Amino acid sequence: MIKNAMEYDKFRFGIVDDEAIKKDTFRMRYEVYAEEFGFEKKEDHPEGLETDEYEDNSLHFACLNQSDSVVGTIRLVLNSAKGFPIEHAVKTAFIGEKPDRSKIAEISRLTVSKDLRRRKEDGMHGVESYITKREGGVLPDDGSIPDEMKGRKNPIIVLGLYQVMYHESRRRGITHWYMITEEKVFFALKKYGFLFHQIGEPVWYHGERIPYLGIIEEVEKDLIKNNPEMLKIMLTGLEKKYYPAFFKG
Description:
- It is a single chain.
- The protein is of the alpha+beta class and 249 residues long.
- It contains 5 helices and 9 strands, in the order E-E-H-E-E-E-H-E-H-E-E-E-H-H.
- The chain has one domain: Gcn5-related N-acetyltransferase (GNAT) (Aminopeptidase, 3-Layer(aba) Sandwich).
- It has helices at 19-36, 156-172, 183-191, 216-226, 228-235, and strands spanning 2-8, 11-16, 58-64, 70-78, 104-112, 176-181, 197-198, 203-204, 208-215.
């Protein structure tokens, strides 16, 4: 159903390795993007599944509840002849030496079921409702907090999805992440140590969206310096042969 699964309380996270679950991720995206917020036209998705031309060139990740229903999604768009979505949306610069394109992936379609969002009116895209202020205030999911995350207001679904996405990036030798999103998401991720660089001017698409670049090694080194416990959490479940070379924990 999902590979390399991680479990936190009543949620399981992993790579989608099942067509039925993948279809469920598209269904949930449709509910959020088309039905809830009207970002996508319903008539463009007559089967009630929100998809685009990048699905076959993406790694799909899901959070499943106790009933094995998808309640959270994220994907990594891999390099292909289609390019990356960000490249068709805005002119970007690169930070540092640009690696082979096979080592770059683009984060997109981070979505959380409205049933697990505390205040529906707060957000867009099914995730910004966690975010209450520019500096990255984040509300927790509707669910219990696992022991290793207690003491913080952590969005379990979002962090769990980022964790399994980070694991698979490490396994595949992906070193850089593109992302185009709202500034609020940037600040929320920054709060948890996921540092991204702005690499272009904002564009308008259902609100202001900004292009960013995340350098995975830089993220890891910043975490080991400023939040080593969070890095330990993020590494939990990853095979040690894929650990950062500098990590001695």
